[in-house]
Amino acid sequence: MSNPAVPSLVELVQKLSAEVGLELRAILPATELDKEVINRFDSWLDSGFAGEMNYLKRAREVGADLRQWKAWTQSVALFALPYRRPPGGFRNGGRVASYALGTDYHNVIGRKLKKLGKRLQKAGICQASRATVDAAPVLEREWAIRGEVGWRGKNTLLIHPNHGPMVMLGELLLDCDVPAWTQPKTRNATCGSCTSCIDVCPTSAFNTEYQLDARKCISYFTIEVSDKEIPLEFRSKMRDWVFGCDECSTICPFGDEKADFDADWGRHPALQQLSLEDLLTTYEQDFHKLFTGSPIRRAGWEGMLRNACVVLGNLKKGEKALKNALDHQSDLVKEHADWALAQF
Ligand code: B12
Hints:
There is one protein chain. The chain is an alpha+beta fold. The protein folds into two domains: 9-86 and 103-182, no CATH class; 196-342, no CATH class. 38% of the residues lie in helices and 12% in strands. The strands form four sheets. Strands 5-8-2-1-9 form a five-stranded antiparallel sheet, with helices on both faces. It has a three-stranded mixed sheet with strand order 3-4-12. A two-stranded antiparallel ribbon has the order 6-7. Helix 1 (9-19) packs across helix 4 and helix 2 (35-46) runs antiparallel to helix 3 (55-63). The radius of gyration is 21 Å and the shape is globular. The N and C termini lie far apart (77 Å). The protein binds cobalamin. Residues 40-41, 44, 53, 56, 97, 99, 133-134, 138-141, 152, 155-158, 165, 167-169, 208, 210-212, 214, 217, 219-220, 224, 244-246, 248-249 line the site of cobalamin (B12).
């Protein structure tokens, strides 16, 4: 018989997670994902909905079985960090997706996960661990659904019953065998008949409920494709979104409206300093320096200047800066400045 005074393995992982500022949501054996999940992933890729995100094809190769990536993996610990916060962006306009207003979430979550890995090792619970957030070939939402962290929303995002869709997912792969555990349910819910996320999308990027055509998503063409023109049909639909988009997240009736996670994620100083007009005058080197530690760097200097032109055009602001940008060294920026001026 087990001694109730001795903490179980799961309790120890919970305790050590809390010590590094994480709440363990679930821990699962690293067995293969269901065939059905992989078949859906394949047909999504085959239909071209991933656009130019070729890294997803690589993710696909090991997506089904994490042990093909890290052969020693026995268990997967799952985490979901809430990030809902008041809207924000550049000084004087130009909205930035909430997750990108502060410190890069890869760093915020990644550092905590790595710390946890070290503590688990020190406590003799495991030897090897691997922190993964976003970038690694892990189908994070599929794992979170399997771990009952929440359910698949019609906007394709994992919806946590209390925090809603605005949670960032992270995982810690472990070489030890921890008994499967999921958090007790605080609330039983689903999307029901609600379609507000589908209806609100400015670019009608959802083909149907639960399926996104990434090529039409503002988040895709403002962040992922940084060296190409933004298709004309989407430019005015971007409105003031200069990096990413939160429309299908913030409309969701699930989530704590009053919560403000600024304290955890911080506000990046560059966003407080710069207006979009200022951004148009930055040099490439300065851009990278200014946005050190921010997810905004991912869109690249040219990409962000391109986005800034579109938003200034939509807001009918910054005429002088846009006129100067007509002589910009980048053809991409010039073309978008020209389009923006035509909107006045
Ligand atoms: C590629 C990617 C993107 C792409 C594509 C998004 C997408 N929906 O796939 C783009 C650049 C557009 C993007 C945007 C955003 N992203 Co993103 N992204 C990823 C990434 C790296 C991979 C996702 C992936 O595998 N997509 C592939 C497809 C196949 O997966 P899928 O949408 O789940 O589609 C399947 C199911 O819906 C399934 N399905 C199941 N049941 C049913 C039923 C029916 C009827 C149908 C038709 C289909 C269906 O079929 C589809 C095909 O297989 C993950 C991180 C990771 N490693 O997992 C983050 C991730 C999904 N992104 C995240 C975030 C926060 C965002 C944004 C909110 C950022 C922003 N504010 O701009 C937006 C949200 C847009 C949206 N609604 O998806 C978070 C989401 C957290 C959460 N709560 O779920 C993740 C998990 C990163 C993280 N570490 O937290 N992202």
